[in-house]
């Protein structure tokens, strides 16, 4: 049994999928605007990746007016996020939200860890990322203090994290302290 707030994995005959969010989609209200089936599955970490901020091809986001979150491979680092369970019917909407057809992000399947299990999840990685600082409004949503914010944003104080690793802001990415 998982003591990290995650529920048992049953993909309901392939009618649902798991999505690992690490940026603005940590905010339940934002994600559910266009993806109403999204429900919190658990909190998880993505090992050997780091969170960075930037813009696709250096083009600033019209929505956020600054850099937005993406992940990049970085041995020894980790990214905290939320695993959402979503209906397959929301997949096209999620891809659209992440600007997949415009080439801004590519969907990938990665393995994330929770206390007691690994889960294969869909997530997104920015293409042609040019590093840029995030705007204050983006940081209000996705924050550079992920674990505490994750619990606050999903509004479930019953979830707990197996171990507490401190994080510190370092430039435009998060590194383990």
UniProtKB/TrEMBL annotation:
Keyword DNA-binding attributed: no
Domain of life: Eukaryota
Pfam family, one: AIG2_2
GO molecular function, one term: gamma-glutamylcyclotransferase activity
List of residues binding substrate: 19-24, 138
Entry keywords, A to Z: Lyase
Active-site residues, as the UniProt record annotates them: 98
Stored PANTHER family: GAMMA-GLUTAMYLCYCLOTRANSFERASE (PTHR12935:SF14)
Entry protein name: Gamma-glutamylcyclotransferase b
Taxonomic source organism: Echeneis naucrates
Upper taxonomic lineage: Eukaryota, Metazoa, Chordata, Craniata, Vertebrata
Gene name linked to the record: ggctb
